[in-house]
């Protein structure tokens, strides 16, 4: 433990109260649990019947009131799903008004809406922009129609490109695209062609996820029944390294395992997702809507994963919380290390010592030198971070560091 620091008796600073650290601004997340169709690989909570959308909006506005002023300020708002673009622009505007009425939202807040091609038009995107959405995240997933068909998407590659161009025409100057790779039947050559077409569009942000077989999904059932054969773990790992190198070489700086921000020469704009970075840095965030998660003062809680239960609780004036947990010191350390290593900046060792009152080496020293010799971690002054190869083996590296 750190020893207390003493000052001479005549030092006037001995009697000055130190101000408490100012908490970082919070993020506000809205889970929109509606989709036109359920993708076979997705395990996020959603329903495909839109008739409850009006009731959901009213319940959501009630939930916001139940958390009124719970955080001193917020500088990001994120509509995720589901498919938030099934909401009409007027409904999005109502929610934004409700958020600003209940929470001190900074004037420069990053306000993001996820949209899927096939659910928007040029005019609706223009209306979203006028309603106060400043950043779009488009669920493109691929620009290869065979891959899109396998993934069960409702749009074609052409419709995805149209959606991106409409977004630019609507006035959005901050547009991100989501992509999925490592799909059965996909080849590295086809994936490289998708990346080349995407880079040619010049989006501001890219999220590139490997396809994972989540328990309980239709796609996992097809794997278990032998109807499809996933790509091997080693192959997907090779593709991850290729993707990182390709995008970094083409003007996209990787800042988290799956996330890349465009960094044009001479451009000082920070295109990293302000909201998503809160999840990786222990910043506070409040989540609203069915299945949404919140985190504040080392306590995490989450709403019922049921639209019916969510609506019933709020109709009765109750917060729709399913459960909560307060992280132990050991859980905080595990998350600090895991989330820190997901980011290319890595772990700030001074921040670790400040938070946990002991040096990171107490936990990691036995393994750090060996991991460095294996080319999996590097140790610039004051930091521990993964190499590109190390990111490929994140789970294993974290396990070894904490062992």
TrEMBL record:
Residues 1-10 have a biased composition (Pro residues). Residues 20-253 form the Radical SAM core domain. PROSITE patterns: RADICAL_SAM. Transmembrane segments: none annotated. Residues 1-20 are annotated as: Disordered. InterPro entries: Aldolase_TIM, Coproporphyrinogen-III_oxidase, Elp3/MiaA/NifB-like_rSAM, HemN_C, HemW-like, rSAM, rSAM_sf. The keyword Cytoplasm applies. It is found in: Cytoplasm. Keywords: 4Fe-4S, Chaperone, Cytoplasm, Heme, Iron, Iron-sulfur, Metal-binding, S-adenosyl-L-methionine. GO terms for cellular component: cytoplasm. SMART domains: Elp3. GO terms for biological process: porphyrin-containing compound biosynthetic process. One of its GO terms (molecular function) is metal ion binding. It holds the Pfam family HemN_C. Its cofactor is [4Fe-4S] cluster. Belongs to the anaerobic coproporphyrinogen-III oxidase family. HemW subfamily. Probably acts as a heme chaperone, transferring heme to an unknown acceptor. Binds one molecule of heme per monomer, possibly covalently. Binds 1 [4Fe-4S] cluster. The cluster is coordinated with 3 cysteines and an exchangeable S-adenosyl-L-methionine. This is Heme chaperone HemW. It comes from Desulfosarcina alkanivorans. The lineage of its organism: Bacteria, Pseudomonadati, Thermodesulfobacteriota, Desulfobacteria, Desulfobacterales. The gene is hemN.
């Amino acid at each position: 433990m750190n020893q207390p620091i003493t000052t001479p008796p005549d030092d006037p600073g001995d009697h000055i109260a130190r101000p408490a650290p100012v908490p970082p601004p919070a993020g506000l997340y809205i889970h929109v649990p509606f989709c036109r169709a359920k993708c076979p690989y997705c395990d996020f909570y959603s329903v495909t019947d839109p008739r409850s959308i009006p009731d959901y909006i009213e319940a959501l506005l009630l939930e916001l009131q139940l958390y009124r002023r719970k955080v001193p300020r917020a500088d990001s708002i994120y509509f995720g799903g589901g498919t938030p673009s099934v909401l009409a622009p007027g409904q999005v505007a109502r929610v934004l008004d409700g958020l600003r009425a209940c929470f001190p939202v900074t004037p420069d807040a990053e306000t993001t809406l996820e949209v899927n091609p096939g659910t928007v038009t040029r005019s609706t995107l223009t209306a979203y922009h006028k309603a106060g959405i400043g950043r779009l995240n488009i669920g493109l997933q691929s620009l290869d129609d065979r891959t899109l068909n396998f993934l069960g998407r409702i749009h074609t590659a052409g419709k995805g490109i149209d959606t991106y161009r409409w977004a630019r025409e609507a006035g959005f100057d901050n547009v991100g695209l989501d992509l999925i790779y490592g799909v059965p039947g996909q080849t590295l050559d086809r994936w490289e062609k998708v990346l080349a077409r995407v880079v040619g569009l010049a989006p501001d942000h890219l999220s590139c996820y490997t396809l994972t077989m989540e328990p309980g999904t239709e796609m996992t059932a097809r794997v278990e029944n032998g109807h499809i054969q996933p790509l091997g773990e080693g192959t997907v790992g090779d593709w991850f390294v290729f993707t990182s190198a390709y995008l970094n070489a083409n003007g996209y700086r990787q800042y988290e395992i799956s996330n890349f921000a465009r960094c044009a020469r001479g451009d000082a704009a920070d295109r990293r997702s302000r909201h998503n970075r809160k999840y990786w840095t222990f910043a506070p965030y409040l989540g609203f809507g069915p299945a949404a998660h919140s985190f504040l003062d080392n306590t995490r809680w989450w709403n019922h994963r049921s639209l019916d239960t969510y609506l019933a609780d709020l109709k009765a004036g109750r917060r729709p919380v399913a459960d909560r947990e307060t992280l132990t010191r050991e859980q905080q350390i595990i998350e600090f290390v895991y989330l820190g290593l997901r980011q290319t900046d890595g772990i700030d060792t001074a921040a670790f010592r400040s938070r946990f009152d002991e040096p990171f080496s107490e936990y990691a020293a036995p393994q750090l030198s060996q991991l460095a010799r294996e080319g999996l971690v590097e140790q610039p002054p004051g930091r521990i971070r993964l190499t590109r190869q190390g990111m490929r083996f994140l789970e294993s590296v974290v396990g070894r560091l904490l062992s």
